[in-house]
Amino acid sequence: MRLSTKGRYAVMAMADLARRQGEPESHDRAVALADIAARQQISLSYLEQLFARLRRRGIVTSQRGPGGGYLLAKSAQETTVADIVLAVDEPLRTTRCVGKVKGCLKNGERCLTHDLWEEMGQQIQGYLSSVSLADVIRDRSASREVSA
Q1: Domains along the chain?
Q2: pTM of the model as a whole
Q3: Per-residue pLDDT tens over the stretch 80-122
Q4: How many C-beta neighbours within 10 Å does residue 125 have?
Q5: In a 10 Å sphere around its CB, with 0-12 CB exposed, 13-18 middle and 19+ buried, how is residue 23 labelled?
């Protein structure tokens, strides 16, 4: 998981979708990407790319035709920020080791700070896995603490 613009924008858009779906007058109607793009000030074509990935990963479902758009595939409580970020980004890589290489250095050894960055990545993953879309739209994620 790499926290890039893709991940940040996907979480923003998904929080908007969850909030709209949660409104009593919505009656679980699909939300148009054009509406999300306007509210969140994100390019519509960029959102289309992100939502195509989210749909392929089963995070959202789509409805075609008049009144079409997107719906959460699971409840906001069951959808984590980590699910969203992983759906649109690559897996978390906090070290410079790539692929099946065991170490960061050319000779295959680990750099001096390898374990530090590896642990940080695990902490980030754990935190993002503990925050649901429901937490985000209730603004409860700010009060959470990362466990040591």
Answers
A1: 5-143 (1.10.10.10)
A2: 0.81
A3: 999 999 999 866 666 666 655 566 777 777 778 888 888 888 8
A4: 17
A5: exposed
